[in-house]
Amino acid sequence: MEPNSHATSSLDQCRVITLPRHRHALGSLTVAENGDTLPFAIRRVFYLYDVPVGSQRGGHSHHQDHQLIVAVAGCFSVTLSDGVNSRRFMLSRPYEGLYIPPGIWREIDDFSSGSVCLVLTSSEYRESDYVRQFSDFQQLTSSKRSK
User: Fold this and answer.
1) pTM assigned to the model
2) The one catalytic residue among 6, 60, 62, 63
3) C-alpha to C-alpha distance for 58 and 131, rounded to whole angstroms
């Protein structure tokens, strides 16, 4: 049986990672490569765009999936919770990504006009990896609050 990542995850594991930034007279280039810049191997990439003003995305956690969230255009906020503590990050630089390990709840909001949210993940899409109800997340993290 897989260990419960929700029982052991901590906001201390979440961090902003500065990706390699190569500046040139014709523009900048940022690279995220397996085995070099990330704490996981990339298995899937997706991006959110045309998010209506006032909308919220995310609203879930993962049992196993690691993610790196990057604001490749515009800006937005990411609020994380480990079941005990919460922390809010503003992402606005295309060469910085927010690393989120398994077991952390995330909500993304305050999208600026024209923003693009790029997400690099450690696994292919599996609905069974998602915890979509906050009450289920609270149950999975309840052992942290009883200590």
Assistant:
1) 0.93
2) 60
3) 11
